[in-house]
Each structure stands twice: as structure tokens, then as C-alpha cells.
């Protein structure tokens, strides 16, 4: 099966080159040149795309706004930003929305293809029915993580809707309780890369998780200075 990509890029020359190269790499590509057109296209078939490539500097609706709409329609679809804006605040904003990656122009097209394939591979569902069943709900004490619906139910019964990235990170923690997980391991497994910006995003997520579990004395996240984190469960 060919993986289907929604490419949103207003620069005609770049968009044409990226589309043609991705098609040579056996992807099916739908190219839109504005955020509004891309959003209408996505609304019509929100389950049909395996990944979205979104330029930030789009006319009218920018890439960040488009991504926020996309997440509301289908929170499971992965997306990455293509942009000439390399400012730290922009990259952190993109990651907070839930982007799976952030590629700054000019970029190497082969590296982009590799990133796309890695993201799609991580998002592929398990083919073994038993594995799928085991993955759907993870329980620790009275806390449950519903992976498919991106929902965390705390010990007090509070339901928290997660971003896809938050869910991926919690799955990693839930499967590695009471052991040190190195920052490098977390960043590589969950983000697919290890740099300053995704590291900052990880710290933001850890702060959120501590708030999620603050009423649960049986769960805590300990920072092991200079190494990583321990997801403690009593």
C-alpha cells in the first residue's frame, strides 16, 4: 500500500520539487498551496492521510492554525512542519501543538523522506490482534491509559484527553515503571531525534504529567539529574 501524504506548501517551485521526489519514493501526494484549501481537503477525508507536511508561512491561515484545526478533526494523524522559521519559540510552539517533527528550510530531501518513513512506521498499528488488544488499554493500579482514544483516566476518575505525543510518552513510561529511562532513549523513541528543542518539549510534557498525577500518591516522576527520569509506581 502506498502511503498518502497531504503536502501544504505555498512556494510553487519547492512544492513541485518535493511532490515529484516523494512520488518517486513511492508516496501518493496531494499538494495544496493554502491552509484553507488544505483544511477543506482534510475535512473531506480526515482518515485517508498517513502524514501531513505543513509549511508554517502560508497565506491567510498559517501552518500553526491549520495544524490546530487538523488535531481537532483527527488527533491521530501525524504531521511535521516545513519552514524557514528556525526561531526557538516557533519550534516549541509547533511541538506543543503536537507536531511529530520540525524541519527547517533548506533541508535535505532524502533526510525528509527518512523522517517521514520513521514517523509513519512509529504510527503503524500492530498487525497481531493480541498485540493490538494489549496496546489499547494499559492499567497501573486504578489509573488507565486508553491508547486508541488518547485518554488518561486517573485514580480519581478524572478523564484527560492527551495529544498523540503525550500518549506515546506515557506508553513508554507505563511500560518502564520504576527504572531509569535516559533522556536520549526517550527522545529517540518518542520524537525520533535528540536535540535541544525536542528536549525542551520533553520537559514541558513532564511538567504536565506531574500535574495529571498530583492527586495520585502512588505515581510520581523523578528527575535523575544528568541522566533521565524514573516513572515511580508504588
Automatic annotation (TrEMBL):
Q: Does the keyword Transcription regulation apply?
A: yes
Concerning CDD domains, the annotation shows: REC_OmpR, trans_reg_C
Q: Which UniProt keywords apply?
A: DNA-binding, Phosphoprotein, Transcription, Transcription regulation, Two-component regulatory system
Report the residue ranges that make up the OmpR/PhoB-type domain in this protein: 135-233
Name the SMART domains for this protein. Answer: REC, Trans_reg_C
Q: Which residues bind DNA?
A: 135-233
User: What InterPro entries does the record point to?
Assistant: CheY-like_superfamily, OmpR/PhoB-type_DNA-bd, Sig_transdc_resp-reg_C-effctor, Sig_transdc_resp-reg_receiver, WalR-like, WH-like_DNA-bd_sf
**One Pfam family recorded for the sequence:** Trans_reg_C
Q: Show where the Response regulatory domain sits.
A: 4-120
**What is this protein called in UniProt?**
Response regulator transcription factor
Q: Lineage from the top down?
A: Bacteria, Pseudomonadati, Bacteroidota, Chitinophagia, Chitinophagales
Amino acid at each position: 500500500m502506498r502511503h498518502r501524504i497531504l503536502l501544504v506548501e505555498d512556494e510553487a517551485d519547492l512544492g513541485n520539487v518535493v511532490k515529484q521526489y516523494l512520488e518517486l519514493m513511492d508516496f501518493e501526494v496531494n499538494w495544496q498551496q493554502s491552509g484553507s484549501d488544505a483544511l477543506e481537503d482534510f475535512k473531506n477525508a480526515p482518515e485517508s492521510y498517513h502524514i501531513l507536511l505543513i509549511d508554517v508561512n502560508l497565506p491567510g491561515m498559517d501552518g500553526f492554525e491549520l495544524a490546530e484545526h487538523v488535531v481537532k478533526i483527527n488527533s491521530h494523524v501525524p504531521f511535521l512542519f516545513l519552514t524557514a522559521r528556525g526561531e526557538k519559540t516557533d519550534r516549541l510552539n509547533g511541538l506543543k501543538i503536537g507536531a511529530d517533527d520540525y524541519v527547517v528550510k533548506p533541508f535535505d530531501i532524502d533526510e525528509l523522506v527518512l523522517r517521514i518513513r520513521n514517523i509513519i512506521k512509529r504510527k503503524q498499528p500492530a498487525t497481531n490482534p493480541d498485540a493490538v488488544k494489549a496496546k489499547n488499554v494499559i492499567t497501573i493500579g486504578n489509573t488507565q491509559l486508553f491508547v486508541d482514544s488518547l485518554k488518561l483516566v486517573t485514580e480519581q476518575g478524572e478523564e484527560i484527553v492527551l495529544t498523540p505525543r503525550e500518549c506515546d510518552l506515557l506508553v513508554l513510561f507505563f511500560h518502564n515503571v520504576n527504572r531509569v529511562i535516559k533522556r536520549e532513549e526517550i527522545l529517540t523513541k518518542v520524537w525520533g531525534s535528540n536535540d535541544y528543542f525536542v528536549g525542551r518539549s520533553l520537559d514541558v510534557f513532564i511538567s504536565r504529567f506531574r500535574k495529571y498525577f498530583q492527586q495520585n500518591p502512588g505515581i510520581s516522576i523523578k528527575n535523575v539529574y544528568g541522566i533521565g527520569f524514573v516513572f515511580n509506581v508504588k
